[in-house]
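Thread title: Can someone regenerate the structure for this chain?

I was given the following input by a collaborator and told the matching structure tokens would be attached. They weren't. Posting the sequence so someone can regenerate them.
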Amino acid sequence: MVILREYPLSMVDHIEFREFLHDLQQLFKVSFRNTLKSDILKIYEYERAKNMIALEKIESQISITTDMWTSSNEKRGFMVIIAHFIDDAWKLQSRIMRFIYVSCPHIADVLSETLLSTLMDWNIDRKLLTLTVDNCTTNDTMISIVLSQLCTRSLAPNGEFFHMKCYAHILNLIVKDVLDIISGSVKKICDSVAYWTATPKRSENFELFARQLKIDCEKKLVLDCKTSWNSTYLMLRALIYNDVFSLLKQRES
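Best answer:
Regenerated them for you:
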């Protein structure tokens, strides 16, 4: 439950939670935070070992996807590496092999070293089919380094199609180029949405005026994420509130 729902480990130390479980089953012994942490790590090691054995045994080739992610609070970079394969029942399977902190600078040498160590650790370096990454020059260099360390004879066909560029990232770049044409209008909408969602009071006032104009408020104002075009699309739904913005312009200069 704690793993699936990402509950804080401290929950098992709360007296209310312990009393609740005791009332459900008096014979059940509730572990404390450190014991729970230890149990979770044991589950992780067990699942990791089980998946490593499974990947070693499969007959099909394995495709890898990897990407970098930066935490919003500490601005630290993390790398995720995922294996994808077809099992014996012809069903697509995916396994997270690694989610690891990567120290700066996030250059090709550092990224390739992290990726290669994972492939070797899981013993799948001779079962690879493709590696899918975002479309950027750093990843191009990283792929070249990885290929130089792998046995290309084990790749099909000799690594010619090993490097796959993420279509979602390419699509995002295409849409961003199109949005640049109307960037002035998009910025005005973004500024307006940012203003009216900045505080709960402003959000309440906005919905109040929308109801006065008999406009359904089911679709909330949302700010976009600059790296995700579909979030900009969701933000542009604010156009349905055009009359509300016009009315509020007279009251909020």
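The chain has three domains: 2-49, 59-165, 171-251.
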